[in-house]
Structures are given as structure tokens and as C-alpha cells.
TrEMBL record:
The keyword Transit peptide applies. One of its GO terms (biological process) is mitochondrial respiratory chain complex III assembly. This is Mitochondrial nucleoid factor 1. It is found in: Mitochondrion matrix, Mitochondrion nucleoid.
Length: 128
């Protein structure tokens, strides 16, 4: 019976969409890692709690098939902040550091400028 569960999870992992922008926060890659860890011996893995395993599979299958998105459609494609889906994708794609650097406040810029050691700061040519 665990062989059937293993094959079902493998099929779910194959069907799960891959997110190309952010591999470190990709739910599909996390799911693949967890399935590989849970089924170390492949089809021969003994499952301690088969009911819980089946319940987890059913939950993930419902998420993958967008049942809840179809049942509860969104009225608008923005969040409560007014940020669009595309802006969220850009923000979560790993360019967070770039955005932080662009939007540094005056205080942070000044602190970085004055916290450098004297040898790090290039010397100006003496004025005549």
C-alpha cells in the first residue's frame, strides 16, 4: 500500500508547477524535498500513520488543482495594500535587496557614509 502512496506523491510532485523566479522559496521544491525525505526507501518505505499521509496528500492535491481558488474567487487582483500581483512577484523574486538599496532612507545613507573607517574613504586632492 505504501507503494501506491509513493507513486501518488511522485505524480503530485511532477504536476506541481515550478516557479522559476525564486528557487529558495518555491513550494514545489520544498514539497519534492519533503517527499524524498519521507520516502527514503522509495516504494518499500513503511508509513507509521497512513491516515495522516493520505490526508496530507488530499490537502496538497486540492491546493494543486486550485479548488479553493475556484470556490472563492477574488474580486480584485490586488491585496489590501493595493500592490498588484506583478509587483508582488518582483518583490518576492529575490530582488528585495535591490529594492532596499534603492529605497534607503537618509539616515541609513548617512550612517553608512560616516561609519566607514578612514582608510576606506578615498582621499580628496588638497585644495589650493
Amino acid at each position: 500500500m505504501s507503494a501506491t502512496r509513493y507513486r501518488r506523491f511522485l505524480k503530485l510532485c511532477e504536476e506541481w508547477p515550478k516557479q522559476g523566479t525564486s528557487k529558495s522559496r518555491d513550494l514545489g521544491s520544498f514539497l519534492r524535498q519533503r517527499v524524498a525525505a519521507a520516502f527514503r526507501e522509495g516504494e518499500n518505505t513503511q508509513i507509521a500513520n497512513p491516515e495522516k499521509c493520505d490526508q496530507m496528500y488530499e490537502s496538497l492535491a486540492r491546493i494543486n488543482s486550485n479548488i479553493y481558488r475556484q470556490r472563492f474567487p477574488r474580486v480584485k487582483d490586488t491585496s489590501f495594500t493595493g500592490v498588484t500581483l506583478e509587483e508582488c512577484k518582483v518583490f518576492l523574486s529575490g530582488s528585495v535587496q535591490q529594492m532596499d538599496e534603492q529605497k534607503k532612507g537618509l539616515w541609513k545613507s548617512l550612517m553608512e557614509r560616516f561609519s566607514k573607517a578612514p582608510e576606506d574613504v578615498p582621499e580628496k586632492a588638497p585644495e589650493k
